[in-house]
Design a protein that fits this description.
With 371 residues, this protein is α/β, with parallel strands linked by helices. Helices cover 42% and strands 18% of the residues.
């Protein structure tokens, strides 16, 4: 493992430990459960250890089960962290302003809302729907024609988003009569280790029916020291990966962008959309895949007609959606930017936290009509 990956792993572990400690502390302070503190801490630590233990143990049904339990436990803690932060701030303000403690009912409501969000969101995120957008485009080389583009995004393959999930997705896609299938990044989450049926999933991908094939761009989580394994997966799955390159066929130019921050590297540099499209035919429909919806204006100015993105997961739950909206003002749905359609998928799946209380997990269908 290279030094940057070791640093990132260490930072992730420290963040996880700090989050777990904060939530454990606030839960104990709010409810004072009728068990010894030592027993409470041991039980909490055992639940926290499930994910790293499942990740490190030899692959088996047992280790996959530990990963699933650990993933959901981390997800619950992330959701409850917002409740814990609100409860902590209100407790401190109440003590400072009025010199007394909160009513026991308020922590119950705050943590109850967090638990309800987790339970509903963990079930709801598994319900993948088809979202359709109709996009008339004025380009000479597709005039009078119709094209159906199917977009998958943010699959985040792992112990929860597993072979069974992929098979359901492939079955749905194969009923959509796709001309092109586009996968707009974050197929993985920094590793392939937690993808227990990697070869079987690659075989399932090869069963996708599309007239022109399956194409993908990389996301910020498709990175790290296991990137070679990820690239090998795309080859085995029959997926054509485009990284700041384009293909042209039958009146369509398909561009796949390199990610803006691969592996969360904010210093990463990439070419502009205009530079990537040099030499392309301007009379073609220009369809672009860019994982993060952070350069809408640049894509529109470069002549892109339809931009497909993901990354934001549609906000997932309140108040996370408000934080995401501050970074990406257009964080879900279809929006016109000049003459370009900017389509941001809420994601076909979700990563940690495996919770979606806002919007739907979706397979996007773009029905393009040339006029």
């Amino acid at each position: 493992m290279a030094k940057p990956q070791k640093q990132a792993a260490a930072l992730l572990l420290v963040t996880y430990a700090a989050l777990s400690a904060f939530v454990a502390w606030r839960l104990w302070a709010a409810f004072l459960p009728p068990i010894p503190l030592a027993g409470y801490l041991v039980g909490y630590l055992l639940l926290c250890a499930c994910l790293p233990a499942g990740f490190l143990l030899p692959r088996s049904k047992f280790s996959k089960g530990l990963c699933i339990l650990g993933d959901y436990w981390v997800s619950l803690q992330i959701v409850l962290a917002f409740s814990a932060l609100a409860e902590w701030v209100l407790t401190a303000l109440t003590s400072w302003l009025f010199g007394n403690t909160l009513s026991p009912l308020l922590p119950l409501l705050l943590y109850g809302a967090g638990l309800a969000t987790f339970l509903y969101g963990a079930v709801h995120t598994r319900n993948i729907r088809v979202q359709t957008y109709r996009c008339p485009v004025d380009k000479p080389n597709i005039r009078g024609r119709q094209l159906r583009v199917v977009q998958l995004s943010d699959l985040h393959l792992g112990s929860i988003n597993d072979l069974r999930t992929v098979q359901r997705i492939v079955h749905t896609v194969n009923g959509l009569s796709a001309d092109i299938v586009c996968i707009t990044g974050d197929t993985f989450t920094e590793n392939t280790r937690e993808v227990f049926e990697l070869q079987e999933i690659a075989t399932a991908f090869r069963a996708i029916k599309s007239r022109w094939g399956v194409f993908a761009c990389l996301g910020n989580h498709d990175a790290g020291f296991e990137l070679p394994n990820m690239l090998a997966f795309y080859r085995q799955a029959g997926v054509t990966l485009l990284k700041d390159t384009y293909l042209q066929r039958d009146g369509v130019t398909l561009l796949g962008r390199a990610d803006r921050t691969p592996g969360e590297n904010i210093r990463s540099q990439r070419a502009s959309a205009r530079e990537c499209l040099q030499g392309s035919c301007g009379e073609n429909l220009i369809l672009a895949m860019d994982h993060q919806p952070g350069d809408l204006e640049g894509a529109a100015e470069a002549g892109v007609d339809i931009l497909l993105s993901g990354h934001t997961h549609g906000g997932q739950f309140y108040p996370l959606n408000r934080l995401i909206q501050r970074v990406f003002p257009h964080y879900r749905g279809c929006k016109r930017v000049g003459t370009m359609y900017a389509i941001v998928s809420a994601g076909t799946c979700t990563p940690v936290p495996y919770v979606r209380a806002i919007g739907n997990s979706e397979i996007v269908v773009v029905e393009v009509t040339g006029r």
